[in-house]
Backbone:
């Protein structure tokens, strides 16, 4: 360890050329100087008293993120919260729209803010391959690059490596893969993902994890968990930016003992927040609920909990009641582009002939830009004509639906009527004609395409851990 | 003729269900009643005194459109004008963005208004095939359908029939073709295009014309012109809506005598404005300028003149000085989607590697939303990643460039300095590195794809007119 833990002396270049012109330059410079001084002081103290730490130098405790719990629900484990980051506040339970390649498809940041988005997510894997994290660092970081000056989370890239590549090799060292763009060979190690995510500069970054496939035997799940725990430790050890929160990811497949062990180990390492990974990968809804309900109570009560890649509004409201604070999912955005729209009454498939002369808005109760200004008939026309505007208007509606849904959950909690709200919500969600018959969750299509987390041929795992 | 000229008694249904909720319902109802009464009165008078008209019943004189010429340039034939329509005013010289399928690709009406668009164009051919003009009529007309409550022009559909279909048969009766969507057979006659355009309800509609191919012999051009003149007469005779202006289209190929004859015949019929068609179809720039400069002086001085499908900013500023008032072209929107951006200094091809780390805006002198908020590096990334947002941001920039260009022309005219402005404009337009060497017009690519007006295998013309 030693001197390598002191971050480099701040320079204009290191902060990104772009920031010279930006307003945040002086603030960032101040932070960097502060970080440098605290690291130097720590190093000096170590010299005097010796180093009793194995990882996580104490200056990481200056981390910017603060999580406040404003209220706990009396009938469930739900919490109403507020998360302060270096780029502002977001309220929990929160839904994060997915902006894979540095843009939430078809939307501008202004569109997102107008519909109430407070935090979004972007994918490390895609940005690492194109345009490259060093380029984004030079251009002043991802916030500046994509013109989003609000809270931002990046994933570790591990999940995308598994789901987008057929030739993946997982070893203790990290993950080797070929780019889906040009076939070039790459390796993402725990240290590498932290380096990339520090270059991107999101407010919350994630540890590299091995997303356990489904189904997996206990032995397979255990071996996969070993990788995750080893990698988490190394991520924590190599993370330096004090203005970023680092979240650990709980794995362990569908096995309670492994999930238990995962949480214990991660808590011992100490993270700024905890994610539940390895769900929404093809298991039944009941299984997911079971794992979440077993895992959440084990997590620290005062830190944010993030259920990755979940899900339908139905899934979300259930997980909220189990005490989850953060969610992300491609459902609202991807479905929008496929013409599947969310309404209070369930799914609406805009290409259906019944909407050809339908003058009404997608959802009479919705106040989004799309519903305020366009008829189902026009949206159907745009969709069938493959117009770009169809993507935008549909995405605006679906995302606004999700964000309004989250807002209503928070409002209900603030007014101590979450239980009643959830009941009303379930009662409403079954009347839309496009719903699949017999489907309990009105927002879930009965014949989904390839499940979101279904990975390509099982990656080769070498050198099983002890 | 007889009774068929009386429009049907207005009903809520005829006016479109949608208008019941809209503010404009009572205004439209009033117009419809007025139209009905004047038609009935005319019919009564015919009964008393006989019908001395062959076409164009006099109630068409209640047409809403008014064209004011505010100023004439002292050094050229340019005019500064203002055109009042049933949906508001647009200033001339005006550029109309093309909204083929009832949407300017990738933009909302709010985007268009923000960048200064006052009038846009939509294509009858596409809307007739999908979603169908009767459907749009039922839904309250095209303005309401597409949420654009400002001046709107529709073309006759003839040009698209020629350019999108390989099996076209032109006869005295009209144009027969197969849909590019499903191969179904259709015929557009002069009466049919008026019927469709009345259903769509644009403020300015166009006569059906036969766009003379290039090159064409004098005989071919003459025969084609005969079709156009016959059709123009029939369009005029079948047009009833008093809130729509009807424009005639001058044809005649590259032959001055035929252009002359075309103008004379159209003036005799009497239209609310005159378009110059059959240009930008593959002829040289010099030829185009020649034909425009010969044709414009023959047109009525107090009515708007519209040069169809033209062109680069260079083409436009030349035609403005020859006295043209209105333009439309797909260049700014189509080029935007192909990553070709307009700047004062010429063309900028955003995918070029030199922009990979370029922090600057597309055009430092531009104030569009895109230039205010995004770097060339980000726009290059979006374009290469095939993101939908790339289309939108590029289109916003290019269209804003065109509209600002038109605004500057008008401003220069208002301040009596058009000549100086044009000179500065030419001087600037040669410095961008992406410009084609040796190309006089900095905004024209030297190797265009298939010219805009190049038609498929020559349509079969039957029954040559006498």
Residues:
């Amino acid at each position: 360890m030693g001197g390598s833990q002191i971050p480099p002396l701040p320079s204009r270049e290191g902060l990104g050329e772009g920031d010279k012109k930006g307003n945040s330059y002086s603030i960032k410079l101040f932070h960097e100087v502060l970080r440098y001084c605290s690291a130097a002081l720590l190093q000096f103290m170590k010299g005097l008293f010796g180093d009793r730490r194995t990882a996580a130098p104490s200056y990481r405790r200056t981390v910017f993120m603060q999580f406040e719990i404003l209220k706990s629900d009396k009938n469930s484990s739900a919490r109403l919260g507020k998360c302060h980051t270096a780029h502002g506040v977001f309220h929990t339970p929160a839904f994060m729209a997915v902006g894979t390649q540095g843009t939430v498809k078809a939307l501008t940041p202004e569109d997102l803010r107008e519909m109430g988005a407070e935090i979004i997510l972007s994918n490390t894997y895609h940005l690492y391959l194109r345009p490259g994290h060093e380029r984004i660092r030079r251009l002043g970081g991802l916030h500046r690059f994509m013109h989003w000056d609000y809270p931002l989370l990046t994933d570790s890239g591990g999940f995308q490596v598994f789901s987008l590549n057929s030739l993946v090799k997982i070893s203790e060292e990290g993950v080797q893969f070929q780019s889906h763009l040009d076939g070039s060979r790459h390796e993402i190690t725990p240290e590498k993902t932290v380096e990339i995510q520090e270059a991107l500069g999101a407010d919350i970054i994630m540890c590299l994890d091995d997303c356990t496939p489904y189904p997996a035997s206990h032995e397979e799940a255990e071996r996969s968990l070993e990788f995750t725990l080893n990698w988490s430790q190394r991520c924590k050890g190599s993370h330096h930016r004090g203005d970023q929160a680092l979240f650990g990811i709980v794995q362990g497949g569908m096995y309670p003992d492994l999930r238990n062990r995962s949480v214990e180990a991660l808590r011992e390492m100490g993270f700024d927040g905890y994610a539940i990974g390895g769900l929404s990968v093809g298991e039944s809804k009941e299984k997911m609920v079971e794992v979440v309900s077993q895992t959440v109570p084990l997590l620290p009560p005062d830190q944010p909990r993030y259920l990755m890649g979940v899900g339908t509004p139905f899934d979300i409201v259930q997980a909220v009641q189990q005490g989850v604070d953060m969610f992300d999912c491609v459902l609202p955005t991807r479905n929008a582009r496929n013409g599947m729209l969310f309404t209070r009454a369930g799914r609406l498939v805009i290409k259906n002939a019944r909407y050809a002369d339908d003058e009404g808005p997608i959802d009479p109760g919705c106040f989004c830009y799309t519903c305020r200004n366009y008829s189902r008939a026009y949206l159907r026309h745009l969709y069938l004509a493959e117009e770009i505007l169809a993507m935008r208007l549909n995405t605006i509606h679906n995302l606004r639906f999700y964000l309004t849904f989250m807002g209503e959950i928070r409002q209900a909690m603030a007014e101590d009527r979450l239980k009643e709200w959830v009941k009303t919500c379930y009662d409403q969600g079954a009347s839309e004609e496009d719903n699949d018959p017999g489907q309990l969750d009105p927002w879930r299509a009965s014949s989904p395409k390839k499940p979101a987390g279904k990975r390509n041929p099982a990656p080769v795992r070498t050198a099983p851990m002890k």
